[in-house]
Structures are given as C-alpha cells and as structure tokens.
Amino acid sequence: MQSKRKVKDMYRKPVWLRIAWGTMQAVLIVAVFSFVVREFMFTNYVVYGQSMMPTIRDGERIIVNKIGYELMEPDRFDLIIFHADEDSDYIKRIIGLPGDELRYESDTLYVNGEAVEEDFLEESKGSNGSEVFTDDFTLEDLTDEQTVPEDHVFVLGDNRQNSIDSRQIGYVPAEEIVGRVNMTFWPPQNIRFVH
C-alpha cells in the first residue's frame, strides 16, 4: 500500500508549479478576453481638442461601442469615432446620411429641404459670442455634389467654429468608422451616457 502511494507522489507536480500553471492559464484567458472585447466590442479613447465641446470636453475618456456598427445603418446625430488618416482618429457627429441633401442657412440645418432641430447645440449657441454659430453652406458649395454619396456620411463637430470636419476633409467612408460613442468615464465627476 505504501509503495503505491510513493509512486503516485513521484508523479505529482510540486505545489508551486501547479499554482504557477493555474496563474498562467488565468492570465492567458484574461488577455484573450480583453483582446476580443477591445478589437470587436468596445474600446476607449482620450479626446484631445475642443471640436466637440461642450458635449465632449478636452481630456475626457470615452467608451466606443464597436459591436456590429459596420453592419448597422448609422443614425443622424450619432457621435462616432473614425479614422481621419493613418495617424489620427476623430470624434464627430453624423449630420448627413447617404442620399441626403444638406444645407445650412441662417444657423438652421436643412435636410432634404426640411428644417431639422439640433437640440444638442442649444447650450453652445447661447454662450456663443457671435450671432452665427454655423456658417451658411450647401453640399454643392463644399463638395461639388448635391447629395451625400452611398456608403459615406457627412460629419460636423459640435463646436462649429473650432472643428475640422466634413467641411474641410469631405465625406467619411463607412468603412473608416470605428464605432459609436456610448459614454464618458473619466474624470469620474463627468461620467455620463452620450446620446
């Protein structure tokens, strides 16, 4: 009986080795899970600049929902992150969807000939020193096209007088969109969902 027990003990791994192996497995599982979540579900960004103020402030950290956004139809007024170039990602608001005819006239957005309210700009317009918050333009003035092309969106920053957006860089291809901004999480006093 004792000889069998000795034989079993010879093949048993030392306690420290079992603990190390268990720890390595846990770390690997967490790393794979984190990679999958970050690549395919959610990611976070730090916002630099004032182009989305007061909706999103310089230095705030945001959560971006990537789940299936490339398969979904974007909605007007979604806040999105997109690849502006090889080195930079921008945060902007979708104003124009594929097929839309857009124009601004007397600080009013017109989509397909109808005035559209931009409630999210009320705070900014009230604190704006000048009378005009968004300068007049038409798509044709900016792009030589009358409507937003298929698989593209037209974006603007909420801080209209201090934003590099579709007025300068043109339409954003749908495949360059990373995802929709869901919430801010840093600094803690600014935690909120973004609609």
Automatic annotation (TrEMBL):
It is an enzyme of class 3 (hydrolase). Its EC number is 3.4.21.89. The keyword Ligase does not apply. It is a single-pass type II membrane protein. Keywords: Cell membrane, Hydrolase, Membrane, Protease, Transmembrane, Transmembrane helix. One of its GO terms (cellular component) is plasma membrane. Residues 23-186 form the Peptidase S26 domain. One of its GO terms (molecular function) is serine-type endopeptidase activity. The active site is at S51, K92. CDD domains: S26_SPase_I (cd06530). GO terms for biological process: signal peptide processing. It comes from the Bacteria. It catalyses: Cleavage of hydrophobic, N-terminal signal or leader sequences from secreted and periplasmic proteins. It is found in: Cell membrane; Membrane. This is Signal peptidase I. It comes from Alkalicoccus daliensis.
